[in-house]
């Protein structure tokens, strides 16, 4: 790691790209950390020199909080704009506001003075398309025309979304959470969090959600917030030049994303901690907390109409990339799925409305005056209780009708959500899975309620359900169902419960929500330990080391390269390799770095040198340093010997040598090696026996070995 | 680490104590983990042999959840019993219930039918001592008698508490959180979580809280829950025999403790994560969540009267041990402080009542009919609004009186709390610091309210405070003040906010609470980075590696032993040391282990052997293995050579040799070494250069070096 110290001096020279990484490679956390400490030390030392340097050091110390503030402000603003745009465009599929075409249905009637609270959905300014074009409102022709235009708008929105993604920013599709998880674990995917992705994802997210597809906007909002984080990183060299520090900012940005997606700042911090982040020191926790706070506050200032918190809220997911035949034609796929969704969704009132409105209705309990079909109970005529304590009542025909429609909606949602995931548009999984859970929960809730009403002498009801009491709340069943379904998909526990009660304000339901989260986790884990994001990461072959325990009894010697029948390890010697040898080695192999040993005979390890740094250093020396030719000897020792003048000038490369490479012995069990890779974020590790270098283990080797031990195809691990 | 595998075989032999640690020593996390994996692997292999073994393996897999269930049940029960006992004994200081002496004031009047809701505090069955003894109630003599008995009871309770702690369980004093933090980081303090501590702490906690001292019961409840965790660990060899696994259970137990202390299950999990725990993998998060859930549920079942959540809640802290003159006489100290507390507290109504009741009153807002002195506002006669929307009103004389009393209570609380910390009784800091914050907050709140009422044309009030509106809520100021004060003391952020809103149900105040937490953290950090628990750990000299970044530019070679002028490192050779040599080495040094090298000339490292294991193995061999004498050669190689019969029989010790000791090079920067110690939980690490062994760094060396770099006394680090 002292090499890193020397690296910094090297960086001061005008040599771009030393210490950076190539696309689709893994970063070395220890090295990044070391570089940041050097930078920090340098600034601290300089700060004593002048007032200006002191001010600069203060700015540097506060830059973390400034970045958090900016991320909070921008992601809150974007989420607010997206919310307003989605509201407007979703309503545009059905009609238009005559007084101002940029008003959504709610805003249109809100500004109209003629409506009372009960009729708040109906006002003359808001006209459905058929009414506007033909003047009719209730005829069969008007219904068909509305239906047709609804499908047409949906197709138009989704076509626009998929085309924009395809042409301008392929990385904008999906939810982005699996990729962000991978990036946070130390992988480089250039452009994934770029400005272009930010712009296109924001626009297409509005289009995709407005088209009525069975997808959520919460996951993509996390991606959008991370793009904001990456954008602001570029303002400060502290973050833009250090991949480790950058990831601290991105973890906090993910928290801000969930904060605005669900209106749940604490839930956002916990989501980032439990689900997304890889390294999450306490400092990042406090910064995430601050970013989430600013973001939630900004969103609330921009969109004061978002009082219905559920409308603010979503969490999403992106389908596996094992594509179908249709998957080869992404535009066609999106059009077909949108068409089917729109055609099937329109006739059923529970699928036509936006999913978050549906969830909100399912969560709510029936007041005495509720007009919803779900609340068509037969009221007891001599009821004299206050409104908020209504005893269980027999269901009326509306409720039975609603039950049938909900059952159809449940099947439809399950099937269409499966097909919607993984299309090439921004899409989230949170809201669709909550909807499935909420529908199932509400159906069960109504069934139990009616059973309790008609059979209150049954043993299970006897003790806690007196006749005439309000003992079953179907809305609570829906809430618990939604939490359980979401928990099963993502395997969240703590963050799930916090998000649910920040979302619903139902702090008193914490115990049933916790019980649902634990149960769904147990049941889901019995089928397979992987949550949806991990499954996605595995399908894409990203190099992600998850937290699962490795329990096989293999040793480092079983995993290291070279294997028994392979050619020996490519090493450099400290004082007997020529520039030509090095260049040949670089040309003939594609390893990311080479160990440096005392001599080929003793095989005693001196250090490790990165391929990328080696190429840059030799190129630079050949250009600028006179006398360095192909048969110059490369020295990694502290002092190069005095050579006779006839010999070519030596090339001293100790400054790019990492003098503290990580080593383990060949007897180290793989579980310890996996632990070291995971906790220290290593890129590679050298294997020795009694001080002799035997081989090397890279992160890829570790992942392939783990895949092999779990009887998976080791070739599915594709990147370094 | 393969050594650990061999160690297991060794453990099967009847050799007790191999693989255990001495008191006040640090555990080796990697080794514990390795041992657990071996155990797990063995059980998995055996499970295929018979149905009985399969059932045993299932039991083993579920034992973690079973332990959590038991911890939740017992700690919930204990917390419920403590709550009820404290209620009764606190009231006993003032009077007694005639109908049943074991009823508290509230229960006494609750069961009486004669009282109305408004008079729920007055009933004939409850009699103050003076009333019972003299028949008078309102006279000056009765007041003095009540005062005298109040002080007497307080002195009796605190004397009993301090004597019990002193005689039976010295570890039961204080809050225990700093020690639990240290234990969770891998330190051994035998008896700290024992059965005796559990019993005495539970009893003395009731006495200490009832005596009216300025202390909280929340911190001690965390200690009590951890004792429960340790108790149930002993039921399963999986946990009792593995110090690493035991600490996973203890982390979850701490969560259960906070869950019952505050009635805040989610807050408990986050407190354990943010404040207490050292290693907190996701699996522990889920288990903590479950334990906290069960504990909260059990508590609610036992103590259904605890609807006033604040009464359930406390967090505590234990004062630094740098004792005063008085500190040498702990019993006297407690008696004196209790006497002063009782004498000064009785006359002021805000200090006489229990601190949690005080906080509860300060948090509450004034309704129109509120009888509290704090709510003595001058009502507008033509007020016709609903009760819950009362506009700002001018303060009456009662409010001004209350303000003076609150100001006195504030000073008293601050001073007496400082003296109460660190006495030799169970004591917590949460409630006292919340009380200080809440009093200050309420005073500021009332001041702002009156300013807004009298000067609503001032610029700051103009925009958000119309005349006749309810624009200032003093109760909210108290809540924010409590959160800010607590945040400053403990430096919690996320867990603080979650605990506050689980406590108060005020989900809508999340934004001011978050702002208070962030601000108080910033301000407190400007004075010093250490929270109260870290300060306490440092004062006690415990070996705790905190999360602060180490930014000094030192290298492993600067820290390792031996230093330049010291004798060379004590090593063993793989095949040329005799039993006598080893015994001499053990006698002459007190190192915890010795590196094993190929030969003294080559200094190539083979492995590391623990002192404790070496002593046990030699003792065992001398007793049982014929022919092992003082000049037998000790072999650490795979095969001992065939020796002539005249030579003494060799002693083969490869099975106790750790073949994968952790090594770093001498050039490794100390920040990396610190990181490795912290993240992998190492006990020691060997230092090499080019494959040659140079020295050793232990956790103590690291901590001493860190203390030195921060200009602290390195000798303050006392334990290994």
Automatic annotation (TrEMBL), chains A, B:
UniProt membrane topology term: Multi-pass membrane protein
Record's subcellular location: Endosome membrane; Membrane
Keyword match Thylakoid: no
Highest taxon, organism lineage: Eukaryota
Gene Ontology molecular functions: antiporter activity; ATP binding; voltage-gated chloride channel activity
Domain annotation CBS: ranges: 560-624, 657-715
Pfam (any one): CBS
Keywords for this protein: Antiport, ATP-binding, CBS domain, Chloride, Endosome, Ion transport, Membrane, Nucleotide-binding, Repeat, Transmembrane, Transmembrane helix, Transport
KW ATP-binding (keyword) present: yes
Cellular component aspect of the GO annotation: early endosome; endosome membrane; Golgi apparatus; plasma membrane; synaptic vesicle
Ranges annotated as spanning the membrane: 62-82, 147-172, 221-237, 249-273, 285-305, 326-346, 402-422, 429-448, 476-501
PANTHER family associated with the record: CHLORIDE CHANNEL PROTEIN (PTHR45711), H(+)_CL(-) EXCHANGE TRANSPORTER 4 (PTHR45711:SF2)
Family affiliation: Belongs to the chloride channel (TC 2.A.49) family.
Name of this protein: Chloride channel protein
Species this protein is from: Pygocentrus nattereri (Red-bellied piranha)
């Amino acid at each position: 790691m002292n090499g890193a110290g020397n690296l910094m001096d090297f960086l001061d020279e005008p040599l771009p790209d030393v210490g950076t990484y190539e696309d689709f490679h893994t970063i070395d956390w220890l090295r990044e950390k070391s570089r940041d400490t050097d930078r920090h030390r340098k600034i601290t030392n300089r700060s004593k020199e002048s007032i200006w340097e002191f001010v600069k050091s203060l700015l540097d110390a506060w830059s973390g909080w400034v970045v958090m503030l900016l991320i909070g402000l921008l992601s809150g603003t974007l989420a607010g704009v997206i919310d307003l745009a989605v509201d407007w465009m979703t309503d545009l599929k059905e009609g238009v506001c005559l007084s101002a075409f940029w008003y959504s249905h709610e805003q249109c009637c809100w500004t109209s003075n003629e409506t009372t609270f009960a009729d708040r959905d109906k006002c003359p300014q808001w006209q459905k398309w058929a009414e506007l074009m033909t003047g009719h409102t209730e005829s069969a022709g008007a219904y068909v025309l509305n239906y047709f235009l609804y499908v047409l708008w949906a197709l138009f929105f989704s076509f626009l979304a998929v085309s924009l993604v395809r042409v301008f920013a392929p990385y904008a599709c999906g939810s982005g959470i699996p990729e962000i998880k991978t990036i946070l674990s130390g992988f480089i995917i250039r452009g994934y969090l770029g400005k272009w992705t930010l712009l296109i994802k924001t626009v297409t997210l509005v289009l995709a959600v407005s088209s009525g597809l069975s997808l959520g906007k919460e996951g993509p909002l996390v991606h959008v917030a991370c793009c904001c984080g990456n954008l602001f990183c570029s303002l400060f060299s502290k973050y833009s030049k250090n991949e480790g520090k950058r990831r601290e900012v991105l973890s906090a940005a993910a928290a801000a994303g969930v904060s605005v997606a669900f209106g749940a700042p604490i839930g956002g911090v916990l989501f980032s901690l439990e689900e997304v982040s890889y390294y999450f020191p306490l400092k990042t926790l406090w910064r995430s907390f601050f970013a989430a706070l600013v973001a939630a506050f900004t969103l609330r200032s921009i969109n004061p109409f978002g009082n219905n918190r559920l409308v603010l809220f979503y969490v999403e997911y992106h389908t596996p990339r094992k594509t179908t035949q249709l998957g080869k034609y992404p535009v066609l796929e999106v059009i077909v799925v949108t068409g089917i969704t729109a055609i099937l969704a329109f006739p059923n009132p529970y699928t036509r409305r936006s999913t978050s409105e549906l969830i909100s209705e399912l969560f709510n309990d029936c007041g005495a005056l509720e007009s919803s079909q779900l609340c068509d109970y037969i009221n007891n005529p001599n009821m004299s209780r206050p409104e908020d304590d209504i005893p269980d009542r027999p269901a009326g025909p509306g409720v039975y009708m609603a039950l049938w429609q909900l059952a159809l909606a449940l099947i439809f949602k399950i099937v269409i959500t499966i097909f919607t995931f993984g299309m090439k548009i921004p899409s989230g999984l949170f809201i669709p899975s909550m909807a499935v859970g909420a529908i199932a929960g509400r159906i069960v809730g109504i069934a139990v309620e009616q059973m309790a009403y008609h059979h209150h002498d049954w043993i299970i009801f006897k003790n806690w359900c007196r006749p005439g009491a309000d003992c079953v709340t179907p809305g609570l069943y829906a809430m618990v169902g939604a939490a359980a379904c979401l928990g099963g998909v993502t395997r969240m526990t703590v963050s799930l419960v916090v998000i649910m009660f920040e979302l619903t304000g139902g702090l008193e339901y914490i115990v049933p929500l916790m019980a649902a989260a634990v149960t769904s986790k147990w049941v889901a884990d019995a089928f397979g330990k992987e949550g949806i994001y991990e499954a996605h990461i595995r399908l894409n072959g990203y190099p992600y080391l998850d937290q699962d325990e490795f329990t096989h009894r293999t040793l480092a010697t079983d995993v290291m390269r070279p294997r028994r029948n392979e050619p020996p390890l490519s090493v450099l010697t400290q004082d007997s390799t020529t520039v030509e040898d090095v260049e040949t080695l670089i040309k003939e192999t594609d390893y990311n770095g080479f160990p440096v040993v005392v001599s080929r005979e003793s095989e005693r390890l001196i250090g490790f040198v990165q391929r990328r740094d080696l190429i840059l250093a030799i190129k630079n020396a050949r250009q600028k340093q006179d006398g360095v030719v192909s048969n110059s000897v490369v020295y990694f020792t502290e002092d190069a010997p005095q050579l006779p003048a006839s010999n070519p000038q030596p090339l001293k490369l100790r400054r790019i040598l990492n003098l503290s490479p990580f080593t383990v012995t060949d007897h180290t069990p793989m579980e310890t090696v996996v632990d070291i890779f995971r906790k220290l974020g290593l890129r590679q590790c050298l294997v020795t026996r009694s001080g002799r270098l035997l081989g090397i283990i890279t992160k890829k080797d570790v992942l392939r070995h783990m895949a092999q031990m779990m009887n998976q195809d080791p070739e599915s691990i594709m990147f370094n």
